[in-house]
């Protein structure tokens, strides 16, 4: 049983926040608000590190790569995709096709 304020409850809440930040970043990217998308992704990646969730980190990096690509930062995009690929390869994660960069 999990009660409000219990560490596992807090971790779960942080996970929801991180996922929603990635979703928000995707909308911001689509709307052309690249700086705001990067800010949201930075927050999501920070949270994913705090709660040690490699799936959210990899998904964040994939969306970040698409933002960097749209901004013309090809080397940054390649690095972000490389980091996401390394996370997936080392952990056995498979990114849902709906979460892949366009």
In percent, how much strand structure appears in the residues? under 5%
Q: Kindly report the CATH topology.
A: Serine Threonine Protein Phosphatase 5, Tetratricopeptide repeat
Query: What share of the residues lie within helices?
Result: over 70%
> Which shape, going by the Cα principal axes?
globular
Q: Structural class, please?
A: mainly alpha
For the biggest sheet, the summary is: none
Order of helices and strands: HHHH
Oligomer: single chain
CATH class: Mainly Alpha
Radius of gyration, in angstroms, nearest whole number = 14 Å
Quick check: average pLDDT?
Answer: 89
Give me the number of helical elements.
4
Write the CATH architecture name. Answer: Alpha Horseshoe
Describe the structure.
The protein has 102 residues and is mostly helical. The chain has one domain: Tetratricopeptide repeat domain (Serine Threonine Protein Phosphatase 5, Tetratricopeptide repeat), CATH 1.25.40. The chain has four helices and no strands. Helix 1 (7-30) packs antiparallel against helix 2 (34-51), helix 1 (7-30) runs parallel beside helix 3 and helix 3 runs antiparallel to helix 4. It is globular, with a radius of gyration of 14 Å. The protein starts with 6 loop residues before the first helix and ends in an 11-residue tail after the last helix.
